[in-house]
Amino acid sequence: MALLLPFAVEPAFAGAWIAPEEGQEIWTNSAGERGDMQAYESSVFIEAPLRPEASLVAAGWVEQGYAAGPELWRGEALLGLKHVVGRWSDTVSAVQGGAFWRSDPPADCDEGGAELRWLGGTSLGEAGRGFLNLEAAARLQSGGCLGRKLDLTAGYRPAENWLGLAQAFLDAPDEGPT
Question: To which H or E segment does residue 34 belong?
């Protein structure tokens, strides 16, 4: 019976960018050690549907320790709107725009700015238990700094309460490390 359980679960539809009717909240916390320094990171993603094709998105993260610099913490926050622009049998495409804040801007820029993001994804496999998600974003901060982001996520849901993820991302600001 346990061997059949993974085949009896709900599909893992490519849905990280489509708000469920009741909305969603995703909270993460991590603690670790890098070199001789402790590091802590927390993030939140909240999505509230406004209508079937649009939702309000709020996201943020804060890091304490290793890469935070002399302030010993750094963070970002985003408030935006997401809109589905295309939906096909197992594939979806959306755009998201919003205002963001960054605690550690490059030297010549302010903390505030705007982000425009394209999101796309597809469900994989006959049972739809896997998915692939690609996101590309451009950020413009007050003062003229431009940054680019690219996220690739693959997921697989072997059972109802289990989800495995693999993610690769590139964060390429005009100044500072990529």
Answer: strand 24-34
